[in-house]
Design goal:
Oligomer: single chain
Helix content: 25-40%
Largest sheet: 6 strands, mixed
Strand content: 25-35%
Shape: globular
Length: 234
């Protein structure tokens, strides 16, 4: 579903991504890990079309980014903090953003999709200014369901969440994968990666320095790999 081949990104004459290669299948969760400045967010922003690649190829569901096609209709993006209008209710925010995505949903469908994304029905008609980060994420997830996104991109989704909210988020991401989404998650959170990821890539200084299936490593080995590549140059 997501195919990145020999992707190079240069900014201010400096190479920030070095021939990155990633393959993420439908129904799979890929955790892209590494310290600050490793290239995780740059990768996501390039997929979103915010950064122009210097060379290489990106495909989502067979559509090439370099052909000038917009891939955003295929993508749902959940940033570190999902921004909602605080004086609109959860359901009003959901319907507004669906309209922007050219998706029409009835009130009944809106309630169902918010519930499917894990937002308790008693919060649907509350103003979003009263929502926790985890609740805002669920509205974002519901929008992804409504637009039938093929791909979900997540940037540090568990930052600032308490343990219970992080565990709840992990359940929702596994549910999204079970619906057939390919999910790329940039994260520092080893526990969350352990909970949801099928595959892990570790980046440093714009290089993908290690890649492995989560089932092949234990929790201690995952931590060791992360610390090893966070502390040494590729």
């Amino acid at each position: 579903m997501i195919s990145i081949k020999d992707l190079v990104v240069q900014r201010d004459k400096k190479t920030v991504l070095h021939k990155l290669n990633l393959e993420i299948n439908t129904g799979s969760v890929y955790a892209l890990m590494g310290g600050n400045g490793a290239g995780k967010t740059t990768t996501i922003n390039t997929l979103l079309g915010f950064i122009k690649p210097s060379s290489g190829d990106i495909q989502i569901d067979g559509v090439h980014l370099k052909e000038g096609n917009s891939l955003r209709a295929l993508i749902a993006y959940l940033p570190e903090n999902v921004a909602l209008y605080p004086y609109l209710t959860g359901i009003q925010n959901f319907q507004y953003f669906c309209t922007l995505a050219k998706v029409n949903v009835s009130d009944r469908e809106a309630h169902r999709m918010l519930s499917d994304a894990g937002l308790d029905e008693r919060h649907h008609l509350r103003n979003a200014g009263l929502y926790s980060k985890g609740m805002r994420q669920k509205v974002g997830l519901a929008i992804a369901y409504a637009k039938h996104a093929k791909v979900m991109l997540l940037d540090e989704p568990t930052s600032g969440l308490d343990l219970a909210a992080a565990n709840d988020f992990a359940v929702q991401i596994k549910n999204a994968a079970s619906r057939g989404m390919a999910i790329l998650m940039a994260t520092h959170d080893l526990q969350n990666a352990r909970q949801v990821a099928d595959q892990v890539g570790i980046m440093r200084n714009g290089y993908l320095v290690d890649e492995f299936k989560m089932a092949d490593v234990g929790a201690d080995e995952l931590a060791q790999k992360y610390l090893q590549f966070s502390q040494s140059a590729p």
